[in-house]
């Protein structure tokens, strides 16, 4: 029973009863007996005290979750031979969670900690072809303020929010992965499932706790993918639930309200439907960058990396670039995959004629990609994101941020 997770929602009476039962009044008599025998007592849990002054918790599983986090990073308060380590001037490790007023809020923070990207997505700036304006703004907002904080003060405070909008498959999420890889910040990958709860009032609390965690782990980046699903336009004429409106209001307050601090908390949002966003959110996202369909130079770089051809097949690259106008980056990847599948299909047709299974060491090699394979791939692949290109251009003309060279 000691390893059983604690309930996430308690009334004050339930919490007090549990705390007194586990750590308090029912162990006072036991604690007094232990103190008389020279053993150290901590909150009702006895420690195995020794003659050299060292001590450790006998059973850490008896400690509640919030007690374990409170003790995290403290270490032992005594060393061998009775020498105290309190006077040693060492930088303590930052705790995972900031101090919260209740166990309920702490449980919400623990659930949000699962959305912190701890690994490395392994996406470099150089691996993203084109999109130079977007990469430059992201470096201005995240990379440079951390490297040279002296310059970004006063009016030059870094951007607090950037919106990446454009057709699907153009690299908005790839840019977010590059930020998580290149920038030494705490990266929160947030979606609607992270901050929407079925319990009344918990969605607003999750938003508040999210920004408290981000300030605690500053410098940090909050990535809101498909933000149009979280904060669409508000209005009485729209079919909007009260809980959804409260969630939107709390998000707006946390981004720019009285709770705003000087901690470097950067909000990066991405959407395919920018015209659905609320006007107040557009104001808080100071830079609104169009991530357009790839230009001919970017398409050529993608083909050279994804579809290696022979040196005499330079004409195939030019043909691909000319015939892929309106293709997104995702469409180009599908096109290259379709072209690479043609030699494999010829090998699979040869293997199907065999009556017996061919051993791995006797399998035939896959041939090179030919010009005919590229033609077949072009006939079998269609663009998926070119129909709404004019709406993105209009929104960019009305609300977009341009960089003049």
TrEMBL record:
One GO cellular component term noted in the UniProt record for this chain: spindle pole
Positions of the AAA+ ATPase domain: 158-295
GO molecular function, one term: ATP binding
Keyword Transcription annotated: no
Region (Disordered): 35-56, 73-92
Pfam families found in the cross-reference section: AAA, AAA_lid_3
CDD domains for this protein: RecA-like_VPS4-like (cd19509)
Subcellular location: Cytoplasm, Cytoskeleton, Spindle pole
UniProt name for this protein: AAA+ ATPase domain-containing protein
Species this protein is from: Penstemon smallii
Keywords from the UniProt entry: ATP-binding, Cytoplasm, Cytoskeleton, Isomerase, Microtubule, Nucleotide-binding
Domain of life: Eukaryota
Entry keyword Repeat: no
Any coiled-coil regions, as ranges: none
UniProt feature, compositional bias: Polar residues: 73-84
């Amino acid at each position: 029973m000691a390893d059983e997770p604690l309930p996430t929602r308690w009334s004050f009476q339930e919490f007090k009863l549990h705390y007194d039962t586990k750590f308090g009044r029912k162990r006072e008599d036991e604690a007094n007996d232990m103190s008389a025998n020279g053993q150290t007592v901590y909150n009702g849990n006895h420690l195995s005290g020794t003659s050299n002054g060292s001590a450790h918790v006998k059973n850490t599983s008896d400690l509640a979750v919030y007690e374990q986090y409170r003790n995290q990073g403290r270490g032992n308060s005594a060393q061998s031979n009775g020498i105290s380590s309190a006077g040693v001037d060492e930088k303590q490790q930052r705790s995972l969670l900031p101090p919260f007023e209740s166990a309920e809020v702490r449980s919400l923070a623990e659930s949000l900690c699962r959305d912190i990207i701890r690994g490395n997505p392994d996406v470099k700036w150089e691996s993203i072809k084109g999109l130079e304006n977007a990469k430059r703004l992201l470096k201005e907002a995240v990379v440079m303020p951390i490297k040279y904080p002296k310059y970004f003060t006063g009016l030059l405070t870094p951007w607090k929010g950037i919106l990446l909008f454009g057709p699907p498959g153009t690299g908005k999420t790839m840019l977010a992965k590059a930020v998580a890889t290149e920038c030494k910040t705490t990266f929160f990958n947030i979606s609607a499932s992270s901050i929407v709860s079925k319990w009344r009032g918990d969605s607003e609390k999750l938003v508040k706790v999210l920004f408290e965690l981000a300030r605690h782990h500053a410098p940090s980046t909050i990535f809101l993918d498909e933000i149009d699903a979280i904060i669409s336009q508000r209005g009485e004429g729209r079919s909007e639930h009260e809980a959804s409106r409260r969630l939107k209001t709390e998000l707006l307050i946390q981004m720019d309200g009285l709770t705003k601090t000087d901690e470097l908390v950067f909000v990066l949002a991405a959407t395919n439907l920018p015209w659905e966003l609320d006007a107040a959110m557009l104001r808080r996202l100071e830079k609104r960058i169009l991530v357009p369909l790839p230009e001919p130079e970017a398409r050529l770089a993608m083909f050279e990396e994804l579809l290696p051809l022979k040196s005499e097949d330079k004409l195939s690259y030019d043909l691909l670039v000319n015939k892929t106008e309106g293709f997104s980056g995702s469409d180009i990847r599908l096109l290259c995959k379709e072209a690479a599948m043609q030699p494999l299909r010829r090998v699979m047709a040869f293997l199907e004629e065999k009556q017996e299974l061919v051993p791995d060491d006797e399998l035939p090699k896959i041939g090179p990609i030919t010009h005919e394979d590229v033609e077949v791939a072009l006939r079998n692949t269609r663009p998926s994101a070119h129909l709404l290109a004019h709406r993105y251009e209009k929104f960019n003309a009305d609300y977009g941020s341009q960089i003049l060279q």
